[in-house]
Design brief:
alpha+beta, Arc Repressor Mutant, subunit A, D-Maltodextrin-Binding Protein, domain 2, four-stranded antiparallel sheet
Length: 297
């Protein structure tokens, strides 16, 4: 007798290569994942995985099973998602991941309204600066800025925002104020970049059209909030979302630079796994988030 639950656990383990990652994606203890794999191996009377301290690999028999079982499991999950998408009201668990700052500014108030409006929904919010793999780790919804390069995800455009150029009064007193965009190339710019990116460009919309300006700096961070903090402490010039900079500007800890010379739009997207039909709970949450963002821009 086929046990689809065991097959689901096996496929997820094969996809993630880790009992811990599989347990997170399936929202079950790692010990349960291990027991179900052992049960499947015992029922089939064959070893399916090689277990090591850091990685799980498939045996030849495991690889053959994965190639046959994975499409079946994905089809079953798609059928389940299509049924859930037909439900008029959101139900079940919604797993969301974002940066801590985005969670604080936008997601927390939206989640409060969402839970109040839909009593049959639960939310699991994971705030991290790490770039999360939504599919492998079992998330329904995440957020990205800029062009989406991952074909395994679909996206929905959120309310557009603006970025600003700013620096601390101390930095300006010591290094001077840039008078034109090209002057940024002679300043210490605080670089916000994902790992692996070597060429850093800041994008602007000018009267003459789009401009991509290469910039340099001695500090590279993976968090816009850290970039803001570094600018406040006089490390250099930062290009950050206006909603992050606004409190520091009001407190006179940051000064706006190059106002009126160019605009710098900040494109934000809600992203979700492409192989799933958008569920009612995910769609309703995105709708509520856009409504909140539009009211607070």
């Amino acid at each position: 007798m086929i046990d689809l639950n065991e097959m689901l656990v096996f496929v997820k383990l094969a996809e993630t290569g880790s009992f811990i990652q599989a347990s997170r994606a399936l929202k079950m203890p790692a010990a349960t994942v291990s027991r179900r794999i052992a049960s499947l191996e015992q029922r089939l009377d064959v070893r399916l995985v090689h277990r090591t301290t850091r990685h799980v690999g498939l045996t030849d028999e495991g690889q053959r099973l994965f190639l046959r079982a994975a499409p079946v499991i994905r089809e079953a999950l798609e059928v389940e998602q299509s049924i859930l998408a037909m439900q008029p009201e959101p139900k079940g668990l919604l797993r969301i991941t974002s940066t801590p700052l985005f969670a604080k500014e936008f997601l927390s108030p939206t989640i409060a309204r969402f839970l109040q409006r839909y009593p049959d929904v639960e939310v699991d919010l994971v705030a991290t600066t790490r770039r999360v793999n939504l599919i492998d780790e079992g998330f329904d919804l995440g957020f990205r800025s800029g062009p989406l390069q991952d074909s395994s995800l679909k996206m929905r455009h959120l309310f557009p925002g603006q970025s600003v150029i700013c620096a601390s009064p101390d930095y300006i007193a010591q290094h001077g104020r840039p008078e034109k965009l090209e002057d940024l190339q002679t300043h210490d710019c605080i670089i916000f970049a994902q790992p692996g990116r070597t060429m850093i460009e800041w994008s602007f919309d000018t009267d003459k059209g789009p401009l991509k300006l290469p910039v340099n700096g001695r500090l590279k961070v993976n968090s816009l909030e850290l970039a803001c903090n570094a600018a406040v402490n006089g490390v250099g010039i930062a290009k950050i979302p206006a909603f992050i900079a606004e409190p520091e500007i009001k407190a006179n800890r940051l000064c706006l630079l190059l106002e009126g010379m160019a605009e710098s739009s900040l494109t934000l997207f809600a992203v979700y796994p492409a192989h799933r039909q958008l569920s009612a709970k995910t769609r309703k949450f995105i709708d509520l988030l856009i409504e909140h963002m539009e009211k607070n821009q």
